[in-house]
Design goal:
The protein has 14 helices and five strands. With 324 residues, it is α+β, with helices and mostly antiparallel strands. α2 packs across α3 and α6 packs antiparallel against α11. The protein is globular, with a radius of gyration of 22 Å.
Length: 324
């Protein structure tokens, strides 16, 4: 495999991430190369590498219970059919990691930092990656109940799971702050944030320093990453790779493309996009693949590009007159 060859010959860190995650994922003796780009980020990137191991274990234990209830084949089928929710959570957390980095590097006042970044990041964590993971759990619970339990917004998602033994997962988000943000009950003054929320008919206020709220944001961020890692652990332990995706007619194209991009990525080379164009006049297909690397010489680009094109021809079953 040219990707594994490239990682082992031209990049640093492969042995470290394999050793570290084999120790954490103690039921496996091999990590498929396709997951190395994700694990690399969770081992080396500043914000992602602090994922919460306790929450990961909580998530992993929940997966174990769901598998016992549904059976592993049904659980696997539900997961693969709804992998787009997991992918959305993963992509969302990576984007928010960049925003957290921007917040850390911002040189304005704490009040301005909270106004521009902190509250918005907390809100987007809740309604983005966290909500997507909750929606995925709801898919499993719907399969158990044999009915559609889907909820579009965060509050009913939490309500749905609150009666189904998800307390440890639901408690990672501060309910009062979530309530206040949802109803525009946030006031920032100097180094303090006041959250106004309702419980029944009673209106309550809660004050925190900006540092305390920042700590809550980072804790939520790390906890969501712990839940994401628990699903990655399941995928690796059950050796779910290309074949499971390509052989399942119920899997949507976004999930297939996610695995395609992973198969064309290394630790430091990221496949950012795959765009397929039909050219009716020529009766051909053109596949545009975008690869990202911060410093790659021309011969290496040529070598990696040729192998990437060859893989694309096989994956998409392209004809000899098609172009990549």
């Amino acid at each position: 495999d040219y990707v594994y060859w490239w990682q082992s010959r031209n990049e640093e860190g492969l042995e470290e991430i394999q050793r570290e995650f084999l120790k954490i994922f103690n039921k496996v003796d091999f990590i498929p190369a396709i997951y190395n780009p994700i694990l690399y980020k969770y081992y080396y990137q500043n914000n992602l590498k602090h994922w919460d191991s306790e929450t990961m274990q909580v998530g992993y234990d929940k997966i174990h219970l769901l598998r016992e209830t549904l059976g592993n084949e049904v659980f696997k089928c539900v997961l693969l059919k709804n992998m787009n929710l997991f992918i959305d959570s993963l992509n969302g957390i990576e984007n928010l990691s960049k925003r957290i980095e921007l917040m850390e590097n911002f040189r304005g006042s704490m009040e301005l930092k909270a106004t521009l970044f902190l509250i918005n990041i907390y809100n987007d964590l809740l309604n983005g990656p966290y909500s997507k993971i909750l929606q995925l759990y709801i898919k499993f619970e719907g399969s158990i109940a044999k009915k559609n339990l889907d909820q579009k917004t965060l509050a009913p998602q939490i309500q749905c799971l609150s009666t189904r033994n998800y307390d440890e997962i639901l408690n990672v988000a501060d309910a009062n702050i979530r309530n206040a943000i949802s109803h525009d009950g946030v006031e920032i003054t100097h180094n303090e944030i006041t959250f106004t929320y309702r419980i029944g008919r009673e209106t309550l206020k809660e004050k925190h320093s900006i540092f305390e709220v920042k700590d809550k944001v980072i804790t939520l961020f790390d906890s969501i990453n712990g839940l994401i890692i628990s699903f990655i652990r399941y995928l690796i332990e059950n050796k779910i790779t290309f074949d499971d995706v390509y052989e399942n007619d119920e899997i949507n194209n976004d999930v297939i493309e996610f695995y395609e991009k992973l198969s064309m990525s290394t630790l430091n080379i990221k496949c950012k996009s795959i765009e397929e164009l039909k050219i009716p006049k020529e009766n051909t297909t053109q596949l545009n693949i975008t690869l990202e690397h911060n410093d790659l010489d021309i011969p290496s680009r040529y070598m990696f590009g040729i192998h990437t094109a060859a893989r694309a021809y096989l994956l998409r079953s392209l004809e000899s007159n098609d172009k990549v």
